[in-house]
Amino acid sequence: MHTPLTEPPAEAGADSLEDQKAAITRLGHELRTLVETTVRTAASPDTLHRVADGVRQVTAQLTGRRRARAEIPEVDGFPGGPRMYSPVVGAGSPLAPPVSITPTDDGLIGHCTLGLAHEGPPGYGHGGMSAMLLDELMGQACTAAGTPGMTVSLQMRYHQPIPLETPLRILGRVTGTDNRKVFVTGTITTEADPSTRLVSADGVFIAPDPDRARALFPGLREEA
Ligand SMILES: CCCCCCCC/C=C\CCCCCCCC(=O)SCCNC(=O)CCNC(=O)[C@H](O)C(C)(C)COP(=O)(O)OP(=O)(O)OC[C@H]1O[C@@H](n2cnc3c(N)ncnc32)[C@H](O)[C@@H]1OP(=O)(O)O
């Protein structure tokens, strides 16, 4: 896009932030394809060694400044917005399915499909992945309800295994609050059969008090 020289810097910044997010998303997609292909391939040791050399060369191209541990990158919407590098929803994360989330009448709904990279028992999702999916949806449901909090308890119930390569639906809903405590439930079903719970969870989330939040997240922007 052609940007006139007279355009205010803030808008130019917004443009480049969108460019940055688009590039991060594209690389994330390619990396997820690499990860899934890697865990499925039956390639020979020679091929695997050659690919490992190639990946090492690719990694070496990601030079420049590295972010510090607690730094919140400009592309990151923490605490209320999209998290580019979240291992659950991050479009830029090679670890994320990634889950796409939209609001419902009384909570949030997430959609994703797990691949062989997320396998626990052969053909089914890892139980820790289910916990991760629910923790995220339930945590984001707290934020969406206006009471952002951190998980202090997550009670998981595994009713049936989660099939891989099958569109899934994840629900998160706040059921009550008590001072800084937020009570939340969540379920995972398939898209095809949303009335059969495969996994369900009850959680307690706690909003850290403001001093604690500043100490935990020193990179938190003033307006958050
Ligand atoms: C303005 C910015 C705010 C930002 C905060 C929002 C962050 C949202 C993040 C991201 C977006 C959403 C996406 C993320 C989704 C994934 C969420 C995660 O994975 S979070 C990582 C895993 N969780 C931890 O690492 C927590 C570790 N725990 C702690 O750091 C502390 O426990 C903390 C700060 C959460 C609370 O500490 P205290 O000292 O403020 O709270 P005390 O005083 O101990 O407890 C308050 C009340 O809660 C009860 N409580 C404590 N633990 C409980 C438990 N396990 N079950 C039930 N109640 C419990 C206590 O009995 C107390 O109750 P009584 O007020 O006395 O009635």
Report on the architecture of this protein:
This protein is of the alpha+beta class and 224 residues long. It has two domains: 9-60; 100-216, Thiol Ester Dehydrase, Chain A (Roll). Helix content is 33%, strand content 21%. Strands 1-2-4-5-6-3 form a six-stranded antiparallel beta sheet, covered by helices on one side. The longest helix has 32 residues, at 9-40. Residues 1-11 have low confidence and may be disordered.
The CATH class label of the largest domain is Alpha Beta
For the sheet with most strands, the description reads: 6 strands, antiparallel
Helix content class: 25-40%
Termini separation (Å)? Answer: 31 Å
Ligands in the structure?
A: ligand 3VV
SS content category: alpha+beta
Number of domains: 2
Strand order of the largest sheet: 1-2-4-5-6-3
CATH superfamily of the largest domain: Hotdog Thioesterase
Number of strands: 6
CATH topology group of the largest domain: Thiol Ester Dehydrase, Chain A
Low-confidence stretches: 1-11
Keywords:
224 residues, alpha+beta, Thiol Ester Dehydrase, Chain A, 2 domains, six-stranded antiparallel sheet, 4 helices, 33% helix, disordered N terminus, binds ligand 3VV, Acyl-coenzyme A thioesterase THEM4, THEM4/THEM5_acyl-CoA_thioest, transit peptide
